[in-house]
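Reviewer 2 asked us to include a model.

Predict the structure of this chain.
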Amino acid sequence: MKKIFLIGLAATAMLASCSNDETVEMAQSKAIGFSNAFVNNGTRSIVDPSFTKDNLEDFAVYGFTQKGQIFKGDKVYKGGTASTGWSYDQLQYWVPGNTYTFGAIAPYSVAENVSDVTLSENATKVEMQVAFTNTDANQVDLLHAAPAQITGTEVTKTYKTPVGMTFSHQLSKVKFSFENAVGEGYNVKIKNVKIINAYTKGTLTVAAVGNSWSGQENNNLELNFGNVVADNTTVDEAAVIANATTLESYNEKLMIPMNNSATYTVTFTAELFKDKVLLGTFVHTVTIKNVEFKLGYCYDFKATLTHENIMDPENPLQPIEFQVVNVDDWNNTDVEQTLKVPTTQSGN
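Predicted model (structure tokens):
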């Protein structure tokens, strides 16, 4: 009896192209600057918009044989009857002698913006373009997978290996950290951290030579990172940053990758306390420039707040000092006076 095997699709762990030594130095003299922008930091902000293997629900698959395209953005979704736990509705089958090449974009909702899907002659990667729009309120973690080509010699009558989809992140992810270095006994709160001019639109090109971004435009997107909060909190409430302590923004945000020609404006409000006494509230505007936001990288921008920059970098806080001006002499008035002592007063 002949056996017919379905083309199975499986989504495996999503791996970002990351390196722990991606560092950007941007601190300038006394001014508040952000440094140590690095990839794949060990901690995460409270709200992370990233997809993982556990929370990804669907993707769009594109597939070719040497004879033409057979998958045209078909929806693959978690659940259903497939043994892999990932199903699609119009089943297709492995046909011996055919070479299969697949590509995928996640989530499936992005498929409506995919165009120019091709497989060039003798190519091993499905190419395409994705027109992407970023927002603040409803962020979408754009993913791409390019599994290894399955050659015609591999596809035998008994072939039934699922197509393993390992997704990689196609955007940049950003968060902010703040260190309190004002001095012993001083506490700081940071509120309303924002990038006010991120790019709204861009085009991802999936190509054999590598994925890249172009056509970034409309840099008027305001990304709200929230307040700087306590570790493991569940609410966006500004926490006290004690001296020599670092805390992170409540939100991480996704950004369209861009070369280092762009300039981004960061705004936030700093509150300075002596113990529990609020001494001042200071609104800051900081520029991030000469930084390349790379596809698949996570950036942690760190600022160190000191007595020199927390109020105004041009007018740093001055220490309260004391000096002894003089010691007044004893009172020289009413001298040589006779004091009458009551006769009833007696000593022991």
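Residues 113 and 131 are 5 Å apart (CA to CA). The longest strand covers residues 186-198. We have added this to the supplementary material.
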